[in-house]
Amino acid sequence: MSENLSLKAFVVLMKASKSIQEKVKKDISDHGMKTSDFAVLEALYHKGRQTVREISQAVLINTGSITYVIDKLETKGYLERSNCQEDRRVVYIQITDQGKQLMDEIFPKHQKVIDQLFADVTDEEKVNLIDILKRAGKQSDTGGQ
């Protein structure tokens, strides 16, 4: 029986993903944060002001849970809300100076951890990996059809 490379690739991807997620979660925890808090701050830090919906889609947290995370971060002074003048249903979230200072301090350290995880992977391999994962993700979005 021949080896099923799709199945093997899937298993390796899942194991690598779990291992990487655990390392990243520990790094974030070492900075005294939860992964969801860091993800929201990181999205605002790099993308600027966003709606709750945009943040939710960017960090893959449902809108019900994201409100709780935003509330906690707002209480800590890391972000603030502002209402959209054109549509009262829309609320913008933006990082505060205090939140930016926090991310200025911890994000470079976090990025080094990520760089270390991929230290044995060449830039060309990273580009190929990104392309492969995007194609696999698109295939799953279309139901494998």
TrEMBL record:
Domain of life, per lineage? Bacteria
- Name of this chain's protein: MarR family transcriptional regulator
Q: Reply yes or no: does the keyword Transcription regulation apply.
A: yes
The GO terms this record gives for MF are: DNA binding; DNA-binding transcription factor activity
Q: Which GO terms describe its biological process?
A: response to stress
Per the UniProt record, the source organism is: Ornithinibacillus caprae
Which controlled-vocabulary keywords does the entry list? DNA-binding, Transcription, Transcription regulation
HTH marR-type domain ranges (all copies): 6-138
